[in-house]
Amino acid sequence: MKKGTIGLIIGLGLVIIVVISLVGGYNGLVTKQENVDNSYANLDVMLQRRADLIPNLISTVKGYATHETEVIEKVTEARTKLVNANNVDEKSEANNELTTSLSALMVIVENYPDLKASTNFAQLSDELAGTENRIAVARKDYNDVAKSFNTSIKRFPNNLLAGMFGFEKAEYFQASEKSAEVPNVSFE
Going from the N-terminus, what domains does the chain have, and what CATH number goes with each? Predict the structure, then answer.
């Protein structure tokens, strides 16, 4: 074999290796991006389930606690914000508001023994508690795949591919600093 032919074969082999690496890297980023999108959609389903339970819960509470309108209005407003949120940041903020207002609502419920004994309220509360647990799991799953994706687009050589093909960092679904505060409800 001639030296030129050997050089051509080696050069062609290197080009093939580089192309296969680029295709594999790109496909890996696409897969991780799809995982982020899927996980976000799953989280969104849980948030929507919770939002769908809220009107029934509010109706039940209204029947027993007619003078607690401020807290009920805050829950309703927070639910509306969650339903109308369009991205991770908006959903995260609206979710935190809803969690805070629901906590305040549950404090009020403690003062209405008849309400707590209501079968309808008990069932709705159980469904809401189960949904809250599913949301926590979905948030963790989403943040895990977002972390994996974000790490991938920052590592070499994927960072080059991510820049060339427009892959952008996935936002984390975070709890606000307010969510650690205990709701203050006054009955004066």
Answer: 3-180 (1.20.1440.20)
